[in-house]
Amino acid sequence: MRITYAQIFYDQGVALIPVKTQSKHILAGYGPHRRQVTQFPLFAEFLLNGGNYALCTGTGGKHQSGGLVVLDFDNPELFDAQAWNTFTVKTARGYHVYFWADDVRSFAFDGLDVLGAGKAVMGAYSIHPDGSIYEPQNQPKIRGIESVFDFPLLSKLEPPKLPEPPKGAPKRFYNRGNSNSRVAQIKAALPILEAVQLFQPEAAKTIQGAGRWRQYNCAFHDDNHRSGWLDTERNLFGCHACDKARGDVLNFVSLSRGITNLEAIKLLGGAL
Ligand SMILES: [Zn+2]
Question: Residue 160 has what pLDDT?
Fold first, then answer.
């Protein structure tokens, strides 16, 4: 069955990558940004010998733009919130819900990951490290949509909380300040959207969305998929594709200018 399902996706142009037997470890040299399967017969042999496989999300489909986008529910309650009417696979902890979407942005919410460009998802009938099977719940008919971000459920979710800083970690990414401090005043005076416009005007042109959460082409890596997010309420920014781009408005300025936070404080303090 692994071969049958891998072939269904291969035939629809989805890039496949080999994964070690009963694990989530991609074979060396392969990955969404590296090498992918080019010869299916050889790959079928690998699967026959017990190998797992993954699908590169953001690829495949019949349209010029777009590709496979999978909602990866870690929280089954969120999954139950809607009849998804599309190919669904049960995972060890939740569900994978498949779409062909024009919008292939990836995003992480609390309890739900949107797997699009640059990501991969374990294929149906692969075997999880705990021995459970990624089991299809229905026929592999995939619904075509514009964007998973149009689902009302997703607009209600928030990105996961920033992790607490490990002991002894540099403070720069976790500097939330004290509301009475001069630093907090400087931060409060510069909304994150304005900071992007001032310090990353090219990236600012890509800002999309309304309300608290906005998406944009991350200013800190080569991004065409709006992997970057802006939290206009808490004045924070982040990126789902690169680790270094995350923090508050002050970090945004210091990263953009290649200066220290202290220098950024002076820069902004002087401009107020
Ligand atoms: Zn980035």
Answer: 67
Residue 61 has a pLDDT of: 84
CA of 85 to the centre of ligand 1 (A): 32
ipTM: 0.97
Residue with tokens 């290649």: 258
The ranges of the chain with pLDDT < 50 are 169-179, 272
Residues with CB in 5 Å of ion ligand 1: 218, 220-221, 239, 241-242, 245
| Distance of CA 218 from the midpoint of ligand 1 (Å) | 5
75 CA to centre of own chain: 17
Measured in Å, residue 64 CA sits from the centre of ligand 1 at 25
The whole-angstrom separation of Cα 65 and Cα 53 is 24
Domains of the chain in sequence order: 2-156 (3.30.2250), 171-271 (3.90.580.10)
